[in-house]
Amino acid sequence: MFCYQCQETAGNKGCTKVGVCGKSEDVANLQDLLIYTTKGLASIVMKAGKVCDKVYDRISNNLFITITNANFDEDFILDAVKKTMAMKEKITNKHQITDLNEVEAYISFDDEELKRKAIEVGVLNIINEDERSLVELVTYGLKGMAAYNHHANVLGYRDENVDKFISFALTETIKKDKEINNLIDLVIKTGEHGVAAMALLDKANTERFGNPEMTEVDFSAGSKPGILISGHDLNDMEMLLEQSKDAGVEIYTHSEMLPANYYPAFKKYDHFHGNYGNSWWSQNEEFEKFNGPILMTTNCIVPPKKNNTYLDRFYTTSNAAYPGAIHIEADENGYKDFSAIIEQAKKCQAPTNLEDTKIVGGFAHNQVLALADKVINEINEGNIRKFVVMAGCDGRSSKRSYYTDFAKSLPEDTIILTAGCAKYRYNKLGLGDINGIPRVLDAGQCNDSFSLVQIALALKDAFGLESVNDLPIEYNIAWYEQKAVIVLLALLSLGVKNIHLGPTLPAFLSETVVNFLVENFNIAPNTTVEEDLEKMIG
Ligand code: SF4
Ligand code: SF3
């Protein structure tokens, strides 16, 4: 195996025996095969011209399955490979496509053959380091884009341009004789379509569930049995709330599901208790103490420890799966029957209380723009000196204490704009407010970075500036998995410069690609709190 798609890759070079994330060699190889097969399908789709939405769904789902910490289940991945093979065959026959290249032509339904092939199709097959770096940068961006696309699609929203672009870009990555300049263009185009995918998901979420609003979220445990829901899928959130409303149990969010607390449509459920626990990587201990069933709708799954007591109350759905966990699939209408989870919850003890913290969030674009006059006034009065965007991912690395220290050291006339699970590094510090405007404004999940861009664009217009780079906004982004890659590419495609990225630069960026990003976008790795504060705040 060779995998270097996330920030925690071994030695910041690559995982070669087993993933730091817990992914086995077999799973890693099968994920490579799934990407290879998906690229073959995408290429066939480009030749076919017109295909039905189910094909685009398959492509997005496959990419999503391979996101860090989403799916650890060999059988599940093999099944996805075979479903993709079947689609390749069907479309090829239907459209009588004959001039198939090697990737398009590869078809097998035999487990042994597929496992053999899986070893052959890893990322190191591209010998040229710069070409490999750009191909993987695009591929990882597409994984993040596909995840956001999937969440919008299950809510009934679709952007044909996003679907078509994913197939187009996947096809470009398997072309022979790729030009570096064309690949660089493809990177930027991937960012542009990332913006479109995030806009689509924003539309889907806000039209279905209302605009997030300023909300106080309770982190304490109640006295009734609970169900914990984690991940990013708000459609699952709604189905779970609706099905459990008269069951005598309470619903809690975990990690990236925390922002569900900010949506009007979910607040109306009396049995929606609040949030339990922290960022994804603290789940082993927190899931033990929760005592009730846990539903993982997406990444980030941390493999349960050997002597865990929760695997028999650990559920997965959609593209998330873990061997031994109970997987719940949607029926042909998209409906998921969560009754097994609810019945199990009734027999469980209430969660063990972890803390009595309360935090305030819900500052997506609509809420912040409702406060725009006040914000602009505070800037003009000199009470707000700068905004610092600290969006992105959290992770296990001890280096990430940097973000807590950085937030603590920011002067009191600065405001943090955040989205994604990165917020857990500083959302309980009690950083106070500036004349009623909290100093940590949480827009929501990582995809809600779109909101931060909307806010920046509105401020740019309000101040009559030419570029978002003229605003008093600094970017100190934390990344971990591939959703953060598409957020980063989206920001670059919008012309945002001077982004500080950490806690380390991606291992998959070659020196040439780093140089390109530095020269054109002035991207910099973060250094020490003192040095970065000096650079960003002065
Ligand atoms: Fe390693 Fe990250 Fe790949 Fe897991 S996802 S195998 S930790 S690089
Ligand atoms: Fe977090 Fe996994 Fe990326 Fe959605 S839950 S931001 S790491």
Average pLDDT score: 97
Distance between the termini: 45 Å
Biggest sheet architecture: 6 strands, parallel
What is the beta-strand fraction?
Answer: 5-15%
Instruction: Label the structural class.
Output: alpha/beta
Low-pLDDT stretches are: none
CA-atom Rg in angstroms: 22 Å
Percent of residues in helices? 40-55%
Q: Strand order, main sheet: write it out.
A: 4-3-2-5-6-7
Bound molecules: iron/sulfur cluster, FE4-S3 cluster
Descriptive account of the structure:
The protein is α/β, with parallel strands linked by helices and 538 residues long. Helices cover 45% and strands 11% of the residues. It is built from 19 helices and 16 strands. It has helices spanning 25-48, 53-65, 74-94, 102-105, 111-120, 129-154, 160-173, 180-209, 234-243, 264-267, 283-290, 339-346, 365-370, 372-380, 401-409, 449-462, 482-493, 511-521, 529-536, and strands at residues 215-218, 226-230, 250-254, 272-275, 294-296, 314-317, 326-328, 358-361, 386-389, 414-418, 433-434, 437-438, 440-442, 473-478, 499-502, 524-525. A 6-stranded parallel beta sheet has the order 4-3-2-5-6-7. It has a 6-stranded parallel beta sheet with strand order 13-10-9-14-15-16, with helices on one face. Strand 9 (386-389), helix 15 (401-409) and strand 10 form a beta-alpha-beta unit. Helix 2 (53-65) packs antiparallel against helix 3 (74-94), helix 2 (53-65) crosses helix 7 (160-173) and helix 8 crosses helix 17. It is globular and about 65 Å long. It starts with 24 loop residues before the first helix and ends with a helix. The structure holds iron/sulfur cluster (SF4) and FE4-S3 cluster (SF3). The site of iron/sulfur cluster has 13 residues, from loops.
